[in-house]
Amino acid sequence: MANTRVPVWLDCDPGHDDAFAILLAVYHEDLQLIGVSTVYGNAPLSKTTSNALSVLKAIGKENIPVHPGSWRPFSRDTKHARDIHGESGLDGTDLLPQPDRLPLKHCNAIKDMRDALLSCPPQTAWLVATGTLTNIALMFAVFPEVAKHLKGLSIMGGAIGGDFTNVYMGPEYTDSAGQKHARIGNMSPFAEFNIWCDPDSARSIFTNPDLTSKTTLITLDLTHQVCATTEIRDMLLFSRVKQEPPARLRRMFYELLMFFAKTYEAVFGLKDGPPLHDPLAVAVVLASINGDLRSLFNDAKHERWDVDVVTEGEQDGRTRVTSATEGVFIPRSVDVQKFWDLIEDCMAKADHETGYAK
Questions:
Q1: pTM of the entire structure?
Q2: For the purposes of burial, counting CB atoms within 10 Å of the CB of 107, is it exposed (0-12), middle (13-18) or buried (19 or more)?
Q3: Which of 67, 277, 302, 352 is catalytic?
Q4: Any idea where the Inosine/uridine-preferring nucleoside hydrolase domain is (predicted)?
């Protein structure tokens, strides 16, 4: 039987939530992860690259190539998220193995991404970006033919705010006039981290006419609906069958989530658990191809949006949207139970594959 799995390239900056995105991309039977590229963001490039290698080792998939990409934005200073992800980018566990292999040397992640995507039949491959957008903006600028060749582009980034959804982003902020307002972003009162790090790259992607109609944007307005509560963390630790003792792999992911939960409570006051942003961008691909998952994201109204990005001033990095006939899909809601079922199913497969029973 012909391979019907959908080819996916993951551009990421691991990152606690990126680790779950890698797990989902590797272990869902409908997907074929054809490559991973890394970018600065949650930590410096050397650390996000090492983290990607470590996560792949932990889940038993060291055969997947890792391509180091951009270490900084094209025209801005580099920024990281130590207050959320720690010094390493994956603080919180001693169970994450050190990688046995080095990342690919003498490679060009931009060209490697292009080559891998163009090697797939037209309109089959997806590009998923869960970090800053420097790598993929450079690729589309240098190799514009990739945009038309892709089936889809899924991005975790941005925040709309207002009444787009009804989620809590953190404490209110006070403007220069002393007025309090609801927070929109997680890096500034207005901007989400991935977009804020390189808003120029983000703007170039959202204004590319070959990409807009095939782009899905997973914003904080959605990800804050999917928090890893105490109940969810316990389910992922012990599995649905209450496995005792929990497997080593599950303990590792649990410890990562506990660290993530503590930093989100300390920084944003979120007491219900951390939002698991990045795997939602992988789940977008599954919802587009798997009939059982079509309802994962509600698209009943077929809303589409033009997206612009503020690139200077107090609101630098803010994503602004206006309604459009054709444009970017920005889901407002997600079937939370189905999402966690996906994560648990892939965790169980990784358990079986790695044989970490203790």
A1: 0.96
A2: middle
A3: 277
A4: 8-341
